[in-house]
Amino acid sequence: MPAKVLTDAAIRKYTPQRSRREIPDARAEGLYLIVEPSGTKTWAMRFRKLGGEQGQKSKLRLGPVDFSGQEITGDPVIGQPLTLRSARALAAAIHRQRALGIDVVAESKANKRRRRAAKEQTSGDSFGVLARTFIEEHAKPNVRRWRNVAGLLGLVYPLDGGEPVVTEGGLMQRWGDKPVTAIDAHLIYETIDEARRHGVPGRERRNKGISDARGRDLARALSRFFSWLVEHRKITANPCLGGYVPPPPKDRERVLSPDEVRWFWAGCDALGYPFGPLFMLLLICGCRREEARAARYSEIADDGTWVIPGARTKNRRSHTVLLPPLARNLLANLPRIENEADFVFCTNGKTPVSGFSKLKRKLDAAMLEAARAEAKAAGRNPSKVTLEPFVIHDLRRTCASGLQRLGIPTEVIEKCLGHVSGTFAGVVGVYQRDALIEQRRVALERWAAHIAGLTSRAPSNVVSMRLPVTVQP
Hints:
The structure is a single chain. The chain has three domains: 8-109, Double Stranded RNA Binding Domain (2-Layer Sandwich); 123-231, no CATH class; 258-455, hpI Integrase, Chain A. It contains 17 helices and eight strands. The chain has helices spanning 8-13, 84-99, 104-122, 127-142, 146-152, 171-175, 185-198, 212-231, 258-271, 275-285, 289-293, 325-332, 356-377, 394-405, 410-417, 426-431, 437-455; strands at 21-24, 31-35, 41-48, 57-64, 155-156, 165-166, 305-308, 319-322. The chain has a four-stranded antiparallel β-sheet with strand order 1-2-3-4. A hairpin with a 6-residue loop joins strand 1 (21-24) and strand 2 (31-35). Helix 4 (127-142) runs antiparallel to helix 5 (146-152), helix 10 runs parallel beside helix 14 (394-405) and helix 15 crosses helix 17 (437-455). The protein starts with 7 loop residues before the first helix and ends in an 18-residue tail after the last helix.
């Protein structure tokens, strides 16, 4: 939008639209009037980053528009309501500071942190203080993915320890000094709906469309936090109860076909270490992604018995996996990356692998390439070959369905997957303590043999067999 000479009357007349409006002021370099879709009007500045490369720009929020018509006494400062004249004066002062080599953006952020810390120290019932206490006293010892809960609340905890960092634009920054009693159901609804439509506050948005999953994640984190506040008598009622929670997704039924298993295996070969072997292991054993991602060599015995600690399982119970020869050979041929935690799948020497979304896209591309190469070799048109979308967790369902088709009893399948619901729920789970070790070993060996038959393209008679796996009464 071309710069215009702003006036008090024009500022009042600008109306909100579906997207945010930014109107530059021709009388002050870099000064903009921001009109939010909600109707809120604020002042901001844009300018080239100090010491940055050509084209790199910074944005600085100055404060809300002051419609009182009365000029403030003293020099205007960032954060206070500003008339048009005050905003122009502040913009000129900021340009002078920049000419002196002062990084006004970094200085503004530091001042915000100092003000927030001072408020939190004097307000024991603020969101900032209580959210930190909630993470330390409840989430860390009781929630498996506590870092994700902290991130949703606006705190990022370094993987190597140390003090958490407040996320720019996150809930901790928005509500840090707000008393928890002032956070009502209406504000929570607006925040959950914002997460669903535009992204969780302070977090990078990974897709452009509406995401119910984002809304559900934030709703659960907030409900858990406010329930904890009720338990500790900080508030009298949870404002999340009875509130809006985006609906859960439909139950997935996606299972990889035999052809897709073959393409999947070829795609994993193309990916190589660490994600290729990790994905293969998920298909062979039916483990959850987080269970396998952080696997340690110290958890795996020489005979292939892999004990996953309860801290990494969904049901908080340790789970024993009887690795078949295919899986043991796979692990034996991996490069050994030296790291203090002894992670099996590690590239930086410090933490287990991450970045699954990016690597899943590469896997999809490699699978499609394998499928089209196979079609071309068979004399079919490769351009007509497509791949039905699937997610990593579908590998676990593929394993379970494959075991079922091989004739494995349901009780054995649930033990292989580490389930405690279903067959082993209720009274049965209390009194049935047989681990079915030998049956589980045979089941995974048969499944691994079936995979080997598919991926070697050799004839396999495993599918039609009813396996001699029985469950003792």
